[in-house]
Amino acid sequence: MQKLESHKYEGKNKDEVLSKALGDLNASTNEVYYDIKEETSGGLFKSKKYLVNIILKEEVIEYIKSYLKEITELMGIKVELETQKNENYIKVNMISDNSSILIGKNGRTMSSLQDLLRQSIQSNINVRVNVILDANDYKEKQARNIEKLAIKLAKEVVKTGIEVKMDKMNSYERRLVHNKLTDFKGVTTISEGEEPNRCVVIKPTEK
Fold this sequence. Notes:
By secondary structure, this protein is α+β, with helices and mostly antiparallel strands. It folds into 3 domains: 7-55; 58-136, GMP Synthetase, Chain A, domain 3 (2-Layer Sandwich); 140-204, CATH 3.30.1370.50. The protein has helices at residues 14-25, 57-74, 99-103, 108-125, 138-160, 171-180, and strands spanning 7-11, 32-41, 47-56, 80-85, 90-95, 131-135, 164-168, 187-192, 199-204. The strands form 3 sheets. Strands 1-3-2 form a 3-stranded antiparallel sheet. A hairpin with a 4-residue loop joins strand 4 (80-85) and strand 5. Helix 5 crosses helix 6 (171-180). 18% of the residues are buried.
């Protein structure tokens, strides 16, 4: 598996040390992941320094590909990887004839693999990277189905004036419903319950 190591810099001026790091990597801030920590030394004459931990996004993507290739080969599954680099996350779509194995029941296998990948990246470079795993666009299809159901139920709530409680969902799925119905006239949405049984309730708004 490909190694993943961040580049470390330190200096007395935060902007200068970050600028030095970016210059050495020949990159802009949107092409890297970085973390800046401030350290103050004790003693009579206190001094302050800044520690920068930085890595190119492309290096992280290459590591992700290497990691997933190794894991899926151990699972006996052949995959093709499509990566999409966004400002806030890296999305990886695993294309395979055995996507049902990769996805698992209700997406649990894929979710576990995503968690392991995120932890592996953070333990190597000590910088949090938001990686979203998908398999044969399973999550996109699920998202569209959830949004369609939300619209259908919202119409029923407007028609009957009776609130509807949806099935339990994870935070990502609940956010899809809230966002989809934000501008839907006649209803409002709230989340209620405790994890992992938290759900969305679609309520009629008062006329």
